[in-house]
Amino acid sequence: MKLLRWILLPPVVLLAMALAVANRSTVTFSLDPFDPETPALGIDVPLFLIVLVSMLVGILAGGFGAWAQARRKAARTRGAAPAGGLPALRNADGD
């Protein structure tokens, strides 16, 4: 898995850097879908900033999802162990 990360990560980083250098022009980031000409919620930012922030949000969302899944799996594993051992303890006490 680490080898795969080292094979895939450098080209992705180089592609993101090339994209950032090539797209330095300013664009209007608009949150108003009804008026594209003069948006009520709009800001002028470089295009690379939008792309890089979007990538960062995607990475963070994926990491959070993987963390939550691992946490659920660990909780499920911890919850199953005492339930399997409990009847054996009851039988040993003579209940």
Textual characterization of the structure:
- This protein is mainly alpha-helical and 95 residues long.
- Helix content is 72%, strand content 11%.
- The chain has two helices and two strands, in the order H-E-E-H.
- The protein has a two-stranded antiparallel ribbon with strand order 1-2.
- Helix 1 packs antiparallel against helix 2 (47-93).
- The longest helix has 47 residues, at 47-93.
- The radius of gyration is 25 Å and the shape is flat.
Overview features:
2 strands, mainly alpha, 95 residues, two-stranded antiparallel ribbon
Widest beta sheet: strand line-up: 1-2
What is the CA–CA distance across the termini?
A: 49 Å
The Cα radius of gyration reads: 25 Å
Number of helices: 2
Structural class: mainly alpha
Number of strands: 2
Percent of residues in helices? over 70%
Residue ranges: pLDDT <50 for 5 or more in a row? Answer: none
The main pleated sheet reads as: 2 strands, antiparallel
How much of the sequence is in beta strands?
A: 5-15%
Q: SSE order, as H and E?
A: HEEH
Summarize this structure briefly.
The protein is mainly alpha-helical. The protein has 2 helices and 2 strands; from the N terminus they run αββα.
How is this fold's topology laid out?
Layout: H1 2-22, E1 26-30, E2 42-46, H2 47-93
Antiparallel strand pairs: 1-2
Helix pairs in contact: 1-2
